[in-house]
Amino acid sequence: MRIDVVSVFPEYFAPLDLSLIARARQRDLLSLHVHDLRKYTHDVHRTVDDAPCGGGAGMIMKPEPWGEALDDITAGQQKPHLLVPSPAGVPFTQEMAESLAAEPWLMFACGRYEGMDQRILDEAATTMRVTEVSLGDYVLFGGEVAVLAIIEATTRLLPGVLGNADSLREESHNNGLLEAPAYTKPAVWRDREVPDVLLSGHHARIRRWRRDQALLRTAQRRPDLLAHIPEDDLDRSDREVLRGVGVEPGARGMAE
Questions:
Q1: What is the pTM of this model?
Q2: CB 180 within 8 A of CB 210
């Protein structure tokens, strides 16, 4: 996969030189490039923003630098999928991360100030797919933090990036549920014990316990997620667990 990021603060992306993402880059599993938007300005102040037309608070990112940047980076026949973090965007989810991980080329445009001139996105959409995406119902200083989160959530799904691919199967949101609690040694710490079933060596019982805990945790913390799980995906034990906390499959909070 190739990823390009355009920002007025390229230093924000130093974490991409660390940990598993850095290793993936070293192993050529990921080609990642960060571009300074100010490189595409032509005045002494390297200006990337101006006052909003029609008045109002704050400043708006100018179209000229963005136009030059996008034209330069995407020159050629193949075009990337351009993602633009925005509070007005579609919610970013694990499902979207999985979809993005299957694409060959992603590009991120990091907005700042009060946002980007709408013509930047409209013009880009004439040659490439453009998606505005939101991490949640809140506002950040700019798109850089959101881009870091999206890149990490997406690239960890690429084949070979994680040392143990099995770890993807049981983690939160992968199967519509939150992940069960995890434990390690020692068996007793400050009078708190690891659940006996996890020390039993009985793999079927351990799988059942983890499934039950995932259902309980989801019902308690994120009952909204249960609405997306088809009733046919629940076995008899699943239904009993949910009924025990007042959730009736097919009647309350579950997808028919």
A1: 0.84
A2: yes
Pairing of strands 49-50, 60-61: antiparallel
Spell out the long-range contacts of 151-157 with Cβ–Cβ below 8 A and sequence spacing 24 or more: 151/3, 151/5, 151/16, 151/21, 151/32, 151/108, 152/21, 153/92, 153/94, 153/97, 154/97, 154/100, 154/101, 154/106, 155/1, 155/3, 155/21, 155/24, 155/30, 155/101, 156/20, 157/97, 157/98, 157/101
* Coil/strand/helix, residue 73: helix
pLDDT tens profile 168-214: 555 555 678 999 999 999 999 999 999 999 999 999 999 999 999 99
CA dist 160 and 163 (Å) reads 7
Cα distance between residue 38 and residue 53, in whole Å = 22
Q: Token pair for residue 187? A: 């068996």
SS (H, E, C) 165-204: HHHHCCCCCCCCCCCCCCCCCCCEECCEECCHHHHCCCHH
Long-range contacts made by residues 44-51, C-beta under 8 angstroms, separation at least 24? 48/8, 48/112, 49/112, 49/113
- Phi (first) and psi of residue 122, to 5 degrees: -65, -40
